[in-house]
Amino acid sequence: MKYHVEFDLEFKKNPYKGRYIVLEGVNASGKSTQAKKLKEYFQKKGIDILTVDEPTHDLIIGKFVRKIITEGTQIPRSALQYLYTADRIINHESVILPALEAGKVVLSSRSFWSAVVYGVVDQGKHNYSRPDANLLLVAQGILSQYHKITLPDYTFYLDTPVDLVIERMAKMNNTKDIYETKEKLDQLLRGYRWLVKEFPQEFTTIDASKSVEDVTTQITNVVNKHFSR
């Protein structure tokens, strides 16, 4: 049987005095580098900041996810996305929300937005469309009206050409993961650009092909508008 279902997406806003900042983008887009730079920036301004990653490094499910994607363990890709979500919710409830409530800045490399971009790839689809993305969002309970994930105050998408990403990866000593092929990187970049187009009010696109310093300046120019008030 085929059923037609329609719904609206409603975001859960951050109710706390702390600010939630997210860096999104493919591997080697500069998220880790910018997280370090931004942490230094906020600390110099005397602002208490917590940096986190998704998937997490210290929580048990995050460790398991990282093991799967770096060792290429054969599990259904849809199952992998649920593991990502479980790790994300634990991290959100036990780490991010308490820090926001305490008034800290939380700076995260990735957030629930990654579930759409990477989830479509893991489903084996090659084109991004609103029906495919909505299915992922609702199935994982991320953006439905009963969701538990708070919308970031600022989400910066670090847009990077695929050739530059590959060039950077070649210079890195990091363990490669299952998403680091040109075909998948091309698709992920299309996914992020589609996401930004679909949710333009939620993203600030940063030209991450620029120098490290220039990228940091692009980001701080935006967040300064809040902290200068």
Folded structure, characterized:
It is a single chain. The protein has 229 residues and is of the alpha/beta class. It has helices at 31-44, 60-71, 77-101, 113-122, 130-139, 162-171, 182-198, 212-227; strands spanning 20-24, 49-53, 105-109, 154-159, 204-207. It is globular, with a radius of gyration of 17 Å. It starts with 19 loop residues before the first strand and ends with a helix. 36% of the residues are buried. Mean pLDDT is 86; it is low at 141-146.
Characteristics:
single chain, 229 residues, alpha/beta, 5-stranded parallel beta sheet, globular
The percentage helix is: 40-55%
Q: How many beta-strand runs?
A: 5
Continuous helix count? 8
Task: Please outline the major beta sheet.
Answer: 5 strands, parallel
Distance between the termini: 55 Å
User: Strand percentage, roughly?
Assistant: 5-15%
H-E order? EHEHHEHHEHHEH
> Which value, in Å, is the CA radius of gyration?
17 Å
Residue stretches low in confidence (pLDDT < 50, at least 5 long) are: 141-146
Q: Trace the largest sheet across and list its strands.
A: 2-3-1-4-5
- Mean pLDDT score, rounded? 86
Gross morphology is: globular
Helix-and-strand structural type: alpha/beta
